Recover the amino acids of this structure.
């Protein structure tokens, strides 16, 4: 199972280089007007290339939305895909804002490493066993 939150955090980290202002404005367009308007807005603005690139890469990871960006009507056939894409993009942009603010304060946190869901963390004991 894929950790979608981790994918959003990673995409947000990539988006942070566009700056807090660009990310905040893009997030506003996404929330108010939707996914298609978000991509149009970002494509029309100079300096928003990192936001678009990270957004497209996020939606293509693990086959979430394979052809996003290829055709404007990609989400026409599936409301589920559209809602998932909007939620993922919104979360990535929120994380991107936090990363951008941390960069401004010179306290950039590292992106967490992927977690193997079948392996307990180091030092963890199995319930029911004496440690």
């Amino acid at each position: 199972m894929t950790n979608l939150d981790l994918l959003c955090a990673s995409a947000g980290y990539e988006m942070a280089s566009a700056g807090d202002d660009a990310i905040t404005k893009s997030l506003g367009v996404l929330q108010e007007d939707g996914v298609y308007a978000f991509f149009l807005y970002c494509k029309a603005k100079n300096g928003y290339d990192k936001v678009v690139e990270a957004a497209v890469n996020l939606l293509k990871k693990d086959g979430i939305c394979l052809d996003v960006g290829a055709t404007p009507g990609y989400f026409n056939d599936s409301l589920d895909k559209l809602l998932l894409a909007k939620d993922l993009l919104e979360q990535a942009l929120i994380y991107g804002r936090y990363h951008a603010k941390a960069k401004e304060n010179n306290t950039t946190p590292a992106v967490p490493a992927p977690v193997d869901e079948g392996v307990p963390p180091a030092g963890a004991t199995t319930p029911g066993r004496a440690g």
Q: What stands out?
A: The mean pLDDT is 81. The chain is about 55% helix and 0% strand.
